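pasting for ref
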Amino acid sequence: MRLTTSLFILIALSLCTSFASAATIHLKNGDTLNAPIIGETNESVTLLHDSLGSITISRKQISEILAEKKAGAPQADTLKSEEPAKPEDQGLLASGFMKDWSRELDVGLSGAEGNSQKFNLHALLEADYSDDVEDIWKFQIAFDSGCAK
């Protein structure tokens, strides 16, 4: 009885996966997944991965889908996900200052309370700029402060 039930479940699972199309999914973070697609919507793609099981991935995280066709020899269809248009750089705080610069701001705040009180603040601004005329500017400004009572 147990063997029959196990065999039935194994056959049912293999039939379910045979109806799904195999695909290679390239994610924007550089990862690649190889698994059959078992469902698709305008917002997401659902895969049946061998190790991870059923996975639903937002189309915003996918850079490319390579799907095999079922009929005849496997051929790859390339389905590019639509990337939203990048807004025009208006500079730092939309002021026009540092327009076309690469900018990054990191801010950290931490605290602890117990037998003593601790408070730490960290701020970092990094920016760089380069153009076709060999002008290269890079700078980094950091602020760290901490106090304990």
